[in-house]
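Q: What changes when zinc ion is included in the input?
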Amino acid sequence: MSFSTEEIRRYGRHLIMPEVGLEGQRRLKEAKVLVVGVGGLGSPVSLYLASAGVGEIGLLDFDEVDETNLQRQVIFTTPDVGRKKVEVARERLLRLNPHITVKTHDTQITSENALNIIRNYDIVVDATDNFPTRYLLNDATVLLKKPLVYGSIFRFDGQASVFYAGKGPCYRCLYPEPPPPGLVPSCAEGGVLGVLPGIVGSLQASEVLKLIIGIGEPLIGRLLLVDALSMSFKELRISRDRNCPVCGDKPTIKELIDYEQFCGVRTSGEALDATRNTVTPLELKKLIDSGEDIQLIDVREPVEWEICRIPGAKLLPLGQLTSRLHEIDQTKKVIVYCHSGQRSALAVKLLRDLGLTNTYNLAGGIDAYAEQVDSSIPRY
Amino acid sequence: MKVVIQIPSALRALTGNLYKVEVEAESVGEALTALIDRYPSLSRYIFDEQQRLRSFVNIFVNDTDIKTLNGLDTRLKDSDRLLILPAISGGRAL
Ligand SMILES: [Zn+2]
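A: The predicted holo structure follows.
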C-alpha cells in the first residue's frame, strides 16, 4: 500500500515520529475499525480516527440527530437535527479526510447481526449508551478474539479500558451482571458534563491508534477512571476472572444470548410491576381535570424541578423518599413521576413494598406528559 | 480503624451529595455496613438479599480490587481508602 503526495503531506506530523513513520501510517491505512454508537463518545472517536488516516471506519447507529445531542456530540451541527446520525457523520468524516472509506450501519446491533458485522473489522470501539449493547459487544468481541476499546461516562465520571480476550480481562470479568433497569441512573436521567465524552472518547481514540500501530502500553488489564470535577485520573488494575462466563476457563456463554432479557429490560419482576401499576399522561390529565384528590409526587432532583414541574406536584427526591415518607398522605391515591418514568418506577416499587398500595407510576414521566398533554412544559 | 469511603457520582444523591464519607471499621464489610447505617437507601445498591456484594458493583481498597484480596472480609488499616465503583452507562435510558 502506497501513499499519494497529498497523503504524505497530510500525515507529515505522524510520519516524522519514529514510533509511527511510514510503516505505522501504512498500518493505520490498512486498519478497519467499527465505532458502535455515534454519540458523545463516538463523535471524538470517529473524528480522530478519520483525521489520523484509519483506512476504513464503520459507523453503527440507528438514531437521528436531535437538539439534546448538540451539547456534547461535536460531530453534528444545528442544521443536522432530524437527519440520520450515520449519514451526517459519514459526510463529515469524508470532508475531513477524503482518503478514507466510511461504511455506515444504520441499524441496531443485535445478537443476530453482531458477529457478521464485527467479523469484518480489526477493532471495535464501545461508544454505546446502554447495558444490553455493552454486554453484546463484549461477548461478541470475546468470541471473535478482537479488542474492544471501552469507554463509559456519567455526570462527571468517566471510565476507559481495553478488553482483549487472551491478553486480559473482559467487561464481564469486571461487572458480571448489569444493574437492574432504573437502579443506577443513566445520563438521560442523571446528566453528563458536555466535555466529558470529549475527554474519554479521545482516550479511546488514542488506544485504537496504539493498538493498530503496535506501540506503547495499551489499557489492557487497567481501568482508567476520570473525575472531571476534581480533574483527577486514577488507574486501577483489573484482572481476568477464571470463572468469567464468557472468557473464563470453562465458559458457559459460547454464542450470543438475548441481551435485553439478560439486562432485565423486558422480563424482570421490577419491570413487570412497573407496567402494571402505571397511569398514562392522558389518564393523569383526566384525574386532575375531574378534581379527584390525588397526591402527585415528583422524585427528580431539585435542579430538574427548577427546569419544570407538573402543577400541584410535591418534590421528594428519590434518595430522600424513605426518610421523608411521613410527608406523603397515605389516604390519597399517590401518583409518582420523574423525567422518563424509570426512577419513579423504582419509587413506586419502594412505596408499595412499604405498604402504600394505592401508588402509581406516570408512564414516560414528565417528558411524556409535556409531549402529550401540556406543551407549555419545557422538555430537556 | 478510621477509613475513608469515596462515593461515585452515580450514588451521591443518596449521601446528600457527599463525596467522601469517613467511617470506623475493621473490615471492608464492616465499613460498608457502617456507611449503610448512615445512608440506608444505599443498601440496595451495594448488597443483595443474601448480603453479598451486588454483581454490578466493585470495591477497591487503596486501588486494589477486593476480589483479589479477601473480599468483604479484607482487613483494613487506619486511613485506608475505599472506592465504590458501580457499572455506569451513558446516554439514553435502558
Ligand atoms: Zn471475562
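Observations recorded in class: Residues A 169-170, 172-173, 241, 244, 246-247 surround zinc ion (CB under 6 Å).
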